Amino acid sequence: MADFRKSGAWRMLMIGVLGFASGLPLALSGTAMQAWLTVDGLDIATIGFLSLVGLPYTFKFLWAPLMDRFEPPWLGRRRGWLVLSQLGIAATLALMSRTSPAHGIQAFALLAVLLSFLSASQDVVIDAYRTDVLAPQERGLGSSLGVFGYRLAMILSGGIAMVWADPVSGSGLNWNGIYLLMAGLMLAAALVSLLLVPAVPAGNVAPHSNARNDLKGFVAVLLAVVVGYQFTSRVGAPLADAVLSPLFGTAPASAANLASPPNPDQKKWVDLLTLLIGMAVTIPLAWWAARRARFETLNRSLGNYFSMEAAGAFLALIILYKLGDAFAGALTTTFLLKGVGFAQAEIGVVNKVIGIWLTIVGALAGGALMMKLGLFRSLLLFGVLQLLSNLGFWLVAVSGKGAWGGFSLPPFDWGLVALHEATAVDNLLLFAVSIENLTAGMGTAAFVAFLMALCNQKFTATQFALLSAFSAIGRVWVGPMSGVLAASVGWPAFFLFSTVMALPGLLMLCYLRGRIQALDVPRGALPADD
């Protein structure tokens, strides 16, 4: 048994378990929490406001350098933060299980924010651990197993938990009991991390820096972000509205026109310009604050990354690689409901019951193929497949509902998942969603492996958090543009355009071919775990 626990198979198993631990708390501060608040009778405005508890996931890169720099006593840098964050999540869920949102919303909201912070911290250390412990030839399979565990946990906490809580067809558990059960699962995950997860290689040590300066630097960067946010909301948003209002033939927001309904397309573009203004101010301000306060771990991490050849081109590839996929996915549900006329139940069955499992299959298949193809060829093949998958929705747009016939999915009850009434399933819809989910799973496995390959093991928590933040930029950009474009040119042309938008990422990938192949070093013996 001791020998097996040193093997690559055991390492992969633990990566899957950590992926499960990473995915479990996400819905518990998101969709599952919203269901609990709704059942408890809270108004929609309060529920909408509480969606802000997820903000720590966006800003986790701010404290990631501290998780690179500081090492909890006795347990080591990665294992220590892993166990502490998981114990914190378990304790927070247990406390939430003893509260009632209807009678103590302030305490519940504070616990929800704490849950998001601890969960985001766990994500930082799991991403860093996976990057540290996997050999180059294992990154593809390791990332796919992480996605597998993550998706399974989201199915449990975000889907099956709602079935359990259903007063008619559920298992009799209320949300308090479900959160207590999830706390027990996170406690079990902490025990696994403490006793069974392999240690990182002995040479993987924290960077040396002045601890006092790092703490001062963190506070300085945090204050810079707060100042940037205040500037964005108080100056950037009105400025963006004033600049764009003439283009839409409206007056800027003021007391004179508050009674008129806002133009939804204008609001999307104003939000985008506001975001760009905020980034243009906040990023240089935070960089200046980090330099002035001598935030050594962050500064050295950024310096280490940008000392790499073609660092800027790699950032461009990170933004562009999934841009076409993001364009097509931005309005898929709206397209299927309003553009084609599919029923909600049909979309739900195909997307949630069938589609999410196909994403898992795609991720596992992508990881297995990466072991044969290597990093560059996998990114290229899966990128081309992602491009072609957009044409599936184009085919739905030009052919329409029922073009390929369909079938009726009979009711079923598998205990964990059930369908109470027969539901029609369109063959063309099933084809388009299946291809999209399979290729998205493959592309995600290769993309995560690519991010891991770019990280230096002294700064993996910081660099992976920053690189993954850059990967979200594309999704932010496409929001306003996709709605305006679809309304202007129609759905068939929109999906053709989304296909074309996948090309810049593939061209950048080909441009960086030699450098990406250099990241994918030949197979060799793993350093012994210590």
From TrEMBL:
Pfam families: MFS_1. The keyword Transmembrane applies. It is a multi-pass membrane protein. Gene3D superfamilies: MFS general substrate transporter like domains (1.20.1250.20). Its main location: membrane. The chain crosses the membrane at residues 12-36, 42-59, 80-99, 105-126, 147-165, 177-203, 215-232, 269-290, 302-321, 354-371, 378-397, 428-452, 464-487, 493-512. Keywords: Membrane, Transmembrane, Transmembrane helix, Transport. InterPro entries: AmpG_permease/AT-1, MFS, MFS_trans_sf. It is found in: Membrane. NCBIfam families: 2A0125. This is MFS transporter. It comes from Vogesella margarita.
